[in-house]
């Protein structure tokens, strides 16, 4: 007799990563409406904030329509039942003060993110999250830039810093299922019973397949957004992933009928056109460039009359990461001068 499949936790960053799809311009009513619908569906964690997390609203990477306080208030008052509110922060953009403020607004899950080889910067903030009695998680960004062994070691260290769940983000949508399987398996082996997280992007149309691959080797927390709303070509599509996992025999506690209604609401209220895999998004994934760079690359390349695919290729060669948006202009100028 086949053993019972483990239950999974679905983490929904539609109201955080989805902000990339609208230039971080979701308003309070939009956030309340979707949060209420996701909560009715029984989505375990609803993540909210600027696309780059707490404290990230800025001229360099984009100003949000609302302050962190306004976003957190709007979502917290709309969540019912068992849904918890999650937040995301990257040390340097966010601070300990931002975490304390989020806790004051009712955040229950805090993800402290770092570049895939710099997990040590999360130590102090993870300690604060634990002191506040919140669930502390660590995710490694741009994880395709590190070896499976390095990712496993970074996650093992994060657990020693206090992380209660650890994992990787495919920030550029670069992975194929075999890539995910190898990395997640190594992480699961390194951290034992600590839940492992996978967050996919859909640049190569692999987000659902990659999420399934992660689950099959032991990941227990999977991220997905309604209609795939997210940076670049979008994230794993929530209302597709959940029934796929249910067919595999996993349970999520999510009501499918209510989830489909929530997805329809997201389609109607959040973004006029869901993310798609256009040429820019595809090349971003192939070259391993952060998905959120696509709008700026396409705009800057068009203005300078250079090939955006050459821009992506050079950004990938330089291994540019989020927060280095100024490199886009540098690359465009260099290509224009060479032409």
Task: Describe, in plain words, how this protein is organized in 3D.
This protein is α/β, with parallel strands linked by helices. The protein folds into 2 domains: 9-269, TIM Barrel, CATH 3.20.20.70; 279-338, Helicase, Ruva Protein, domain 3 (Orthogonal Bundle). It has 13 helices and 8 strands. An 8-stranded parallel β-barrel has the order 1-2-3-4-5-6-7-8, surrounded by 6 helices. α1 runs parallel beside α2 (68-76), α5 (148-161) runs parallel beside α6 (177-191) and α11 runs parallel beside α13. It is globular and about 60 Å long. The relative contact order is 0.13. The mean pLDDT is 95.
Strand count: 8
CATH superfamily of the largest domain: Aldolase class I
Largest sheet: 8 strands, parallel, barrel
Helix fraction by DSSP (H/I, runs of at least 4)? 40-55%
Uncertain spans: none
Adjacency order of strands in the biggest sheet = 1-2-3-4-5-6-7-8
Order of helices and strands: EHEHEHEHEHEHEHEHHHHHH
Give the tally of structural domains: 2
Oligomer: single chain
Rounded to the nearest angstrom, the radius of gyration is 19 Å
* Overall average pLDDT: 95
Please report the distance between the alpha carbons of the first and last residues. 66 Å
């Amino acid at each position: 007799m086949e053993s019972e499949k483990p239950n999974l936790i679905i983490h929904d960053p539609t109201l955080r990563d989805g902000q990339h799809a609208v230039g971080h311009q979701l308003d309070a009513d939009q956030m309340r409406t979707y949060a209420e619908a996701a909560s009715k569906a029984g989505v375990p964690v609803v993540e909210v904030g600027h696309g780059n997390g707490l404290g990230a609203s800025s001229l360099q990477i984009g100003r949000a329509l609302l302050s962190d306080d306004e976003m957190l208030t709007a979502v917290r008052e709309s969540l019912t039942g068992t849904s918890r509110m999650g937040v995301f922060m990257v040390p340097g953009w966010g601070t300990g003060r931002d975490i304390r403020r989020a806790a004051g607004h009712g955040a229950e899950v805090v993800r402290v993110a770092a570049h895939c080889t710099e997990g040590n910067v999360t130590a102090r903030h993870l300690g604060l999250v634990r002191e506040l009695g919140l669930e502390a998680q660590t995710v490694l960004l741009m994880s395709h830039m590190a070896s499976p062994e390095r990712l496993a070691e970074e996650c093992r260290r994060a657990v020693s810093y206090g992380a209660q769940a650890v994992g990787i983000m495919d920030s550029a949508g670069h992975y194929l299922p075999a890539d995910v399987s190898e990395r997640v398996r190594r992480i699961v082996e390194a951290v034992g019973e600590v839940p492992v997280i996978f967050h996919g992007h859909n640049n190569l149309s692999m987000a659902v397949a990659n999420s399934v691959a992660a689950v099959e080797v032991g990941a227990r927390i999977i991220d997905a957004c309604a209609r795939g709303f997210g940076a670049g070509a979008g994230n794993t599509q929530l209302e597709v992933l959940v029934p796929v996992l249910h067919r595999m025999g996993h349970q999520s506690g999510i009501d499918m009928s209510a989830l489909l209604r929530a997805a329809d609401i997201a389609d109607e209220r959040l973004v006029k056109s869901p993310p798609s895999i256009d040429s820019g998004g595809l090349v971003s994934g192939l070259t391993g460039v952060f998905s959120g760079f696509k709008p700026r690359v396409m705009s800057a390349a068009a203005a300078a009359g250079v090939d955006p695919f050459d821009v992506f290729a050079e950004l990938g060669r330089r291994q540019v990461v989020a927060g280095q948006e100024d490199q886009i202009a540098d690359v465009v100028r260099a290509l224009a001068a060479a032409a």
